[in-house]
Amino acid sequence: DTGVSQDPRHKITKRGQNVTFRCDPISEHNRLYWYRQTLGQGPEFLTYFQNEAQLEKSRLLSDRFSAERPKGSFSTLEIQRTEQGDSAMYLCASSFPRRLEDTQYFGPGTRLTVL
Amino acid sequence: GNSVTQMEGPVTLSEEAFLTINCTYTATGYPSLFWYVQYPGEGLQLLLKATKADDKGSNKGFEATYRKETTSFHLEKGSVQVSDSAVYFCALATTGKLIFGQGTTLQVKP
Lengths: 115, 110
Hints:
heterodimer; A: mainly beta; four-stranded antiparallel sheet; B: mainly beta
């Protein structure tokens, strides 16, 4: 299967700990996106990369959050000093934009629970 | 700003009933429009899309038409099945990111 993969699928941590999630996009996709989804809501955009460049960050992405895509392939999302409000599903998506076409394909998500 | 509004759920239908889930949007420019579906315990899957006004997206019996004059992209299916039970998200794409509606839960009963 060559879809978007995310690791881990579930993460339980204690408040104040740091966590890191990984996303591997579809291999030929040069754009990679991170979203956050809380229960009963639609996903909310966090940030996205084109190749290794981080092009946009949401105001939702506080200074405790950092994302990287060092070689333009996989990406990591780190949350420092986790808070209970960070509990959510973190979704990764990738795309390869073409003229009039930029469809994002999503991974299965990482569910974070902060105790 | 850009936004998407979906009809509130849950929507409960009997098998073989007609489905409409309303979606309206506010956007500058000419966004692409999408419907994604999230089945229980699974990730978001693209259901259908439309990239310009009057385009009709279709997949698995679902259809939606990009209506610029009414800023709408309503999802329809002529005859739903129990297996269509899921959460449906309308979304628009602008400057690289997707903006989603809050989702509409569909429950289809046998």
